[in-house]
Design brief:
CATH architecture: 4-Layer Sandwich
Number of domains: 1
Radius of gyration: 24 Å
Number of strands: 16
Number of helices: 7
CATH class: Alpha Beta
Distance between the termini: 92 Å
Order of helices and strands: HEHEHEEEEEHEHEEEHEEEEHE
Largest sheet: 7 strands, mixed
CATH superfamily: Endonuclease/exonuclease/phosphatase
CATH topology: Deoxyribonuclease I, Chain A
């Protein structure tokens, strides 16, 4: 009897089949980002700026005296389509990005799927927590798996009362490609929590609209817009508010980028014209000459559009010579940008902005009218600790802060990001508070 019952149970188990397979769908196809059309231009002569070779240790701290290659030694100029693709397959879309809710909760469908070899494809299963890039790790990155921060929380902008704007100049590419593929510069920009960023060497992955959309989302959120110029190492702008117009002015002293501008629809009655620049390394007279071009164009725009706008210019000036009455300061004896100090300084009190903190290359300049509303830069803490205040703005060097301070005030940026391979510049932050 027992034997018969046992046989019956075995036969019942064998006859049972498994449940149906459940397929995991890939990301949805979404359109390109907010990149505006750029007028086609003739091919340019080769540019002159190039990064040094990647170090064996991708997180080694740069020795500015020995490890950073001169900027003017470089490769043949390429167009956006000539930029070598990274390990990404170039088909990234906004659907590849993690969606982040207000409480920062991440669900499996929000995280890009990661295969064992580090590549991301549309058919991969949702990542487990172990597959998600770490944001507060030890700073280690590899060329084929960039650490990209989640989309940051967007600060609420009051509809009434003064309008606070935080500007950032950001030539923060790393590695040997003059791009943001390794993630250091993206974390720096995200951690700075700026509203309007004037970005240099604006290359990312394949330079497609979808890739730029991914980068912009990681810097300041999905509602932000961006404009990218043309050239081997283009300038561009990322804005928290809508970009309503854009264009470029020719820099007569250099061939692999232009002087790029956008008009931004700020809350309130006036707009903002922001100009992103990367001036020639040498001679310094070239920097002054390009600054004069911008001062003239801003003066002409202001005459054609009276009382429409505030104006700001920022980026890598490659020296302080353009920050003068002969450069950005005046045009036809009319004041344009405010060029007098004091300039932003680092947490160490040093105003210099290159990798070795021995030379001043990078600036944010507002027009003389907007300067009346410049205010100290105040950085709030995520845990309720006392804020940090920088009266004239900040030279953002992560090496000036402890890991605890970085996590508290500048997450997701890491202490080693400003010392990343071939990181030749620091970010510059400046704030204004405009009455409404």
């Amino acid at each position: 009897m027992r034997i018969g019952m046992l046989v019956a149970v075995v036969l019942a188990v064998v006859s049972c089949g498994g449940g149906p397979d459940i397929g995991v769908g890939g990301p949805s196809d979404q359109g390109a980002g907010d990149l505006r059309d750029v007028d086609a231009r003739d091919a340019r002569d080769p540019g002159s700026e190039v990064r040094g070779d990647l170090f064996d240790d991708p997180d080694a701290v740069v020795d500015p005296e020995t490890d950073v290659a001169p900027e003017d030694s470089g490769p043949e100029a390429t167009t956006r389509d000539d930029i070598l693709a990274s390990t990404d397959d170039g088909d990234a879309t906004p659907g590849d990005l993690p969606d982040v809710s207000d409480d920062d909760a991440t669900i499996p469908d929000d995280v890009p799927a990661t295969a064992d070899d580090g590549t991301i494809t549309a058919d991969d299963a949702p990542a487990t927590p172990d597959d998600t890039p770490a944001l507060l790790d030890d700073g280690a990155t590899t060329p084929d798996t960039p650490d990209i921060p989640d989309t940051p929380d967007v600060p609420d902008v009051p509809s009434t009362g003064p309008l606070a704007i935080r500007f950032m100049a950001a030539n923060l590419s790393s590695g040997d490609g003059q791009d943001y593929n390794l993630g250091h510069g993206i974390r720096l920009m995200a951690g700075a929590k700026a509203d309007i960023l004037m970005v240099q060497e604006f290359n990312y992955l394949t330079n497609s609209d979808a890739d730029y959309r991914k980068m912009s989302d990681a810097i300041c959120g999905a509602e932000c817009q961006f404009h990218v110029g043309v050239g081997q190492i283009p300038n561009g702008i990322v804005s928290r508010w809508p970009i309503t117009d854009s264009g470029f002015w020719d820099d007569p002293y250099i061939s692999n980028r232009d002087l790029d501008w956008v008009r931004i629809d700020l809350p309130g009655p006036k707009d903002l014209v922001a100009v992103s620049v990367h001036l020639h390394t040498s001679p310094s007279s070239d920097q002054v000459g390009a600054a004069k071009v911008i001062a003239q164009k801003v003066t002409e725009y202001r005459a054609a559009h009276p009382d429409c706008c505030w104006y700001v210019v920022g980026g890598d000036f490659n020296g302080p010579s353009a920050v003068s009455a002969n450069g950005f300061g005046t045009y036809n004896s009319q004041p344009v940008f405010y060029v007098a100090g004091p300039d932003p300084v680092g947490n160490d009190g040093n105003e210099n902005t290159n990798a070795g903190r021995s030379s001043q290359y990078d600036f944010v300049l507002v027009d003389t009218a907007l300067h009346a509303y410049q205010t100290p830069l105040v950085v709030t803490a995520s845990d309720g600790s006392a804020p940090l205040t920088f009266p004239s703005g900040l030279v953002f060097d992560t090496r000036d802060f402890s890991a605890t301070q970085m996590s508290r005030y500048f997450a997701p940026a890491l202490t080693g990001d400003s010392g990343a391979p071939s990181m030749q510049h620091m970010g510059i932050l400046k704030s204004v508070l405009i009455p409404r």
